Amino acid sequence: MKRFLSAILMTAAFANAQQIKELRFEGLLHLSNDIAQEITGIHPGEPIDIEKVDEAIRRLFAQGYFKDIWVTEEHGILTFHFKEKPVISQILFSGYGENKRDELLSAIGLHKGDIYDEAKIEKAEALIRGTIEAEGFFDTVVETEVTPLETGSVKVEFKINKGENIIIKKLNLCGAEHLEKEDIESVMANRERDFMGWMWGFNDGKVKIDQLKYEAPRIRDLYMRHGYLDAKVEDPLLRVDFNQYAAILDFKIEEGEVYTVKDVQIDLAKAVIDPVILKDELKVEPGDTFNIDDLRKDMEKIKERIANMGYAFVRVVPDFSKDEKEHTTVVKYKVFPGDKVYIRDVVISGNTRTLDRVVRREIFLAPGDLYNLTDMKDSKSALMRTGYFENVVIDERRVSENQMDLVVNVKEAQTGNIMVGGGYSSYDGIIFNASINDRNIFGSGLSVGLSTDLSKHRTNFNFNITNPRIWDSEYSAGFNIYNSEYESYDYTEKRFGGSITFGRQIARYWHASVMYQYYSTSMSDLDPNFPDYDFYNNNDFVTSAGTLSLRFNNTDDYYLPRHGMIFGISSQFAGLGGDAEYNKNYMNFSIFQGMEDYINYDLILRYKARLGFFGYDDKLPVSAKFYMGGVRTVRGYESGSIGGIVEGEDYYYRTGGKYTFSNSVEASVPLLEAAKMRLAFFLDYGMIGDDDFNEYERAGTGAVIEWFSPMGPISLIFAYPLMKEDGDKTSNFEFTMGQQF
Predict the structure, then answer these.
(1) Are residues 559 and 387 in contact, defined by beta-carbon separation less than 8 angstroms?
(2) 260-336, what's its fold?
(3) Which CATH number fits the domain 88-161, given the four candidates 1.10.599.10, 3.40.640.10, 1.10.600.10, 3.10.20.310?
(4) What is the DSSP secondary structure assignment for residue 696, as one 8-state letter?
(5) Pairing between strand 677-689 and 696-709?
(6) How far apart are alpha carbons 568 and 571 in whole angstroms?
(7) pTM beyond 0.85, yes or no
(8) In angstroms, rounded to a whole number, what is the distance separating the alpha carbons of residues 572 and 557?
(9) Cβ(158)–Cβ(125) under 8 Å?
(10) What is the pLDDT of residues 175-203, one digit of tens each?
C-alpha cells in the first residue's frame, strides 16, 4: 500500500514537473550518500524526470548490493529507499568437502563478508560439481540452504552428495607395439584398475576427468623420450556404463620409427661464447637415440651457461631437421642471448620481523652486479637454509634492455617458541621438557636457547647462543653451557661444562669451525666388575678438547630439504690439559632428492650415513665412546643401548665402541597437506665395535609422521627392531622436536 501511494505522489510530481529541492537516501550500508548521488546523476534544482529516475534505479541495481529499490517524493524531497542484500557470514560444506574446505572455497570464489547473490550461488554450485566430477565422481548433487541470522546476515550451507566414482575397467592402447603397457600407464593419471586396486600403492582405476585432456600429450612425450619423433596419439575416448559406473578408455597410437641423432648444432645470434664449449657439456650427441628429456636438459644447460655471463633474457629455441627415409635428425639449438643485464636494485619484501640486512646478506647479487642465474638460484637456497623463512620467491622485474630489479619476497617461518611438553620412554618413563628458544631472535639472525629435560633417569639444563654472521661478515661464533645428570643402564654420570665455537664461511657451501670445550665428569653407582672401576667410580675427571670441523651444505631448505647434500667431518683432540687423551673422528653424509619433477608426485627420497672412529685412545672415558640406538643411528632400539659388551656370570655392561657406522634410507610422502603433515618410511642399519666395525650389527624399520606443528617441526617415530638379539633394549616409539626431517 505504501509503494502504491508513493507511486501516486510521484506521478503527480512528474505531471507538475516539480523541481527537486533535496535528495535523500535511506537504508544504505555499502555506499555513501555522495557516491549514491553520483551514480544517480540527479541533482537538487533539476525538474523531476521519470526516465532519469528509472535510469538511476537501474544504475544503482547494477552495483549488486541491493535486493529492492523504490523512490518517493514529498514536497520536492526525492527519497531513494534501499533494501540491501544480506552479507554472507558463514559458508559451510556438508556431505562432502568438510576436509577440503579451503580447496572448495578457492574453487567457488565465495568468501565470508561477500554480498549474497543468487546468481553467484548457482555459479558456485556448478563449480563445486565440476571440482568433484574432476576427481571422478559422477551424478554429483549440490543443494544450497540459506539461513537468515539475527544479525541480518545469512549462513550458506552447500549440501553435497558426491555421487559415484567411474572405474576404468579396461585401458586399450591401440597401436602400441614397442612400449610396454605398464610403461605408458606410468606417465598417465587415468589408469586401468589393478587387482586389489583398493590397496595403497595399486591403481584404483578412478577416472580423473580434469586430467584426460593431458593424457595424449603425456603419452606422445614418452614416445619422444624413446626416439619416436613421428609418434601420434589421438585424444582419448572414454566409454562409460552409467549402470555399472564402469568405463573403457581407448587411445589410438601411431608409433612411427625410432630416430637417431645425426648431428648437433648450436646457432648463436651473437658470438658470446665458443659453441664448441657449449657442445662439450650437452647430453644429446650424434649417434644417440633421440630423447626429448635430454634435449630439454641441454636447453637449460645452455640457458644457464649464457645467463651466468650476464645475459638474463637469453632464449633457447630447439629445431629439428628430420630425414624420414633414414630416420635421423639434426638437432639445432638457436640461441638468442640479448643484452647483458645488470642489477639495478634488490628489494626485500614480506619480512615483517627479520631485518633487511639479515635477508640481504644471504643474497649473492647486489645493485650494480652483472646478472648471474646460478647466483640467483643459490640465493634462494641460502635463504631457505637459514630456517627463518617458510617460502622465498625472487621475482625478476625487467626495467630496461640491460637492467632489472630483483624483488625478494619472503614468507617468514615461526623460529621461536616457548614450549612445555613431555613424553614417555620405556627406559626414562615420563619425560618433561621445557624450553625457550628462537633461531632468529628479534629478527637479528641470532639463535638463543634455554632448555631443560627432566625424567626418571635424566636431568639436563642447557643454555646456548650463536651468531651465524658476526656483523654480517663470513665469521660465526657460539657459546654453550650445560649441566646434566644421566642414569645410564650401568652407571650414573654427572657432567658440567661448556664450549665456545668460532667459524668461517670459506666458500658458498662450505663452513669451517674450531671449538674448544671443557667439562668435568663424575660417575657413580658402578659395579666393581665394571672395567676401570677404580678410575671411574666417584672420581671426577676433566675433558679439555679442541675440535676442528668442516661442513658442506647445498640443500634447498633447513627443515625439509628436497634437493641437495650435507657432508660434515670433524676431529676432536682431547688432552689440552685435563685427564682425557684421545682423538675422536666423525663423518656424516646426507643426500636428498625430490621426485616431483620426474613422477609428478611429492615423493622425497633420503639417504643418511654416519661414520665414527678413534685415532688414538690413551685415556678414553667410557662416556666419550660411540653408542648406537635411537633417532640418530638405528631406530627401534633405545638411545645409546647398543655398544661394546662386557659380560660375566652375573653382570652385563655396555661400554660403547671405538668404531661405528650407521645409515638410513627414507621415503617421505604427503599425508595431510592442509595440516603440513607428511608420512615417511625408513630402514636403518648400523654396526659398532671396539676392535672392528661389525662386532655388533642391528637394523630397524618403521614409519615417521613429520609434522610442521604450531610449536615447530615434530617427528613421531614408530619403529620395529630387526636383527634383535637377547638383552637388547628396544623402543617402538620416540619423538623429536625442532630437528631436520
Answers:
(1) yes
(2) Ubiquitin-like (UB roll) (3.10.20)
(3) 3.10.20.310
(4) E
(5) antiparallel
(6) 10
(7) no
(8) 29
(9) yes
(10) 999 999 988 988 888 888 887 766 666 77
